[in-house]
Amino acid sequence: MRPVVLRTARLELSVPTDADVEAIYAACQDADIQRYTTVPSPYERRHAEEFVPKVAREWDEAVHLTWAMREQGVLVGMIGLYRLSGSGDGEIGYWMAAEARGRGLLTEAARAVVDWGFSPEGADLVRIEWHAVAGNVASAKVARALGFAFEGYRRQALVSPTGRDDGWAAALLRDDDRTPQPWAVLGDPIAAVAG
Questions:
Q1: Which residues pair with 169 in a beta bridge?
Q2: Model confidence, pTM
Q3: CA distance 159 to 48
Q4: pLDDT surpassing 70 at residue 192
Q5: Is 70 exceeded by the pLDDT of residue 164?
Q6: Is the omega angle on the peptide bond into residue 3 within 30 degrees of 0, that is, cis?
Q7: If you average pLDDT over residues 55-79, what whole number do you get?
Q8: pLDDT at 61 exceeding the cut of 90
């Protein structure tokens, strides 16, 4: 599959390039990114250098589709649709650079990715899953804002470079009403989400 560029009011989503290596490396020094995602820990510069060509290969294979999120040309995070089965299923994943958090950028980017993922002109998915380490409230608030329905708690289900973690799971179907619903694990009223 050829890489696709998505645009929102404030962001451009496109494949990461060699010019992004330093920004990726710097962002992935963040303890939360290392704790809550599958990036290597510790994260070395070579990991960022290897990541860029890996993303290009994965677009060719149409199994993992990753976009760099850029605000006015500055890399602010990564987002993607992963584990595309060829049967209409995929999983959304993302991380946001620490200095870009709290302004709703992630929710904005994720909405564009979900819309493209369900579009017949895009990935034509029927179901998009979301998984996160239990306790990753910021990620959960983004998924909830997009209309994902919480599906449960998965014991020791998530494997990362740091070991196994309990996980939260949610999903969104193409025809779902995307109105955010309360999630018991968040224990708070639905509020405006700042990604």
A1: 131, 152
A2: 0.92
A3: 20
A4: no
A5: yes
A6: no
A7: 97
A8: yes
Instruction: Give the DSSP H/E element, type plus range, for residue 1.
Output: none
Q: How far apart are the first and last CA of the chain?
A: 28
Distance (Å, rounded) from C-alpha 149 to C-alpha 16?
A: 30
Summarised one tens digit per residue, pLDDT across range 13-59 is 999 999 999 999 999 999 999 999 999 999 999 999 999 999 999 99
Q: How far is CA 172 from CA 93, 99, 128, 153, 185, in A?
A: 13, 29, 5, 16, 17
**Torsions phi, psi of 74, nearest 5?**
-100, 130
Structure tokens at 117: 């993922």
What CA–CA distance (Å, rounded) separates 141 from 111? 13
> Is 78 in contact with 26 (CB distance < 8 Å)?
no
Cα three-residue angle 184-156-58, rounded to 5 degrees: 95
pLDDT digits (tens, 9 = 90+) for 114-123: 999 999 999 9
Q: Where do the H-state alpha helices sit in the chain?
A: 21-27, 31-36, 45-61, 105-118, 137-145
Q: Which CATH class is domain 6-173?
A: alpha beta
